[in-house]
Amino acid sequence: MSKVVVLALLQLVLSAAARVITNSGIAVKYESGLSQTLHHDLHWLDVTEWIQLQVATWHGSSLPD
Fold it and tell me: Domain locations in the chain?
């Protein structure tokens, strides 16, 4: 599988988890509404944003003092 496909699948899982946690089901039908729920209500990052944060954190922690 390509990286794009893997990231898309991970984002689907994250979105499904957000729907379960917020009990929104199909009420939050459009991705923009769900994205707002992820960011503002749950304080979650999208999968690609989370990966970028982790890479930046790892890179920053490996710098010499």
Answer: 3-61
